[in-house]
Amino acid sequence: MSKAVIEFKNVNKIYKLFKNDKKRFFGLLFKGVKHTEKRAVDNVSFKINKGESVAVFGKNGAGKSTMLKMITEVVFPTSGEIIVKGRVSALLELTSGFDPEFTGRENIYLKGQILGLKNDEIQKLEPTIIEFSELGEYIDQPVRTYSSGMKARLGFSISVNIEPEILIVDEALSVGDEEFRRKCIKKINELINNENVTLLYVTHATKTAKDFCKRGMVMSMGKLIFDGPIDEAMEIYEKSIKG
Question: In the chain, how many domains are there?
Fold first, then answer.
């Protein structure tokens, strides 16, 4: 029997919206400061088992990104419980966690440590990460000298080569040129063909999702409105776009 590696139990996330930065500041210090509330995730429950590949669909503002941020502990739920078991690698903001003054090589160690790896583990993975990134001699230059594409390549290369147990992809496949993008897609396919890797793929591109996933979830206005076979999920999502 497969075990759940991601589980949401009646999860809610409510953001407080203040009129301006001054009121937001006072809202942190005092109760009763006037504000409105936005329920980004509304009583969501689901389980994802080890080795599953699941696509998440939804229009902008549906709650997808908030859900991912809670899985990666960038933000925390207002109520409910989230259980995550395993090393999470998230292809969300590929360049987050980089120090611009460090070289590419030094940033491999920095980001690896943030992701919970020990230095000897990073050392073993370092040649593979550098080779995959195709940065050549630039790997020993400060990251502040990199173009946005070079930084994204390095971020992607670290994220997919740290041997993740849970891989979260948020339409991050537009990395670099067409040849490098194909290489990225091939690498993700290799990872998800490993029964120990669980994929959560958030996208607007239904065709690409079908290449990766057999199960689909559809979010709308913070609610999980469908969870089941990918073809049905695509159909429901496409209908929701049309009206």
Answer: 2
pLDDT, one tens digit per residue, over 53-81 is 999 999 888 898 899 889 988 889 999 99
Specify the pLDDT at position 93. 63
Assign 29 a pLDDT band (cuts: 50, 70, 90): confident
d(CA 190, CA 149): 23
108 and 223 both lie in a single domain: no
Residue 95 lies inside a defined structural domain of this protein: no
Is the domain of 197 the same as that of 220?
yes
Give the mean pLDDT of the chain.
86
| pTM of the model as a whole | 0.77
CA 56/CA 139 separation, integer angstroms: 34
Write the DSSP assignment of the chain as a string of letters. Answer: ---EEEEEEEEEEEEEE-SSHHHHHHHHH-TT---EEEEEEEEEEEEEETT-EEEEE--TTSSHHHHHHHHTTSS--SEEEEEE-S-EEEESSTTTT--TTSBHHHHHHHHHHHTT--HHHHHHHHHHHHHHHT-GGGGGSBGGGS-HHHHHHHHHHHHHHS--SEEEEES----SSHHHHHHHHHHHHHHHTSTT-EEEEE-S-HHHHHHH-SEEEEEETTEEEEEEEHHHHHHHHHHHHH-
Surface-to-core class of residue 240, CB atoms within 10 Å of its CB (0-12 exposed, 13-18 middle, 19+ buried):
middle
> Which has more confidence, 200 or 208?
200
| Domain-terminating residue out of 108, 139, 157 | 157
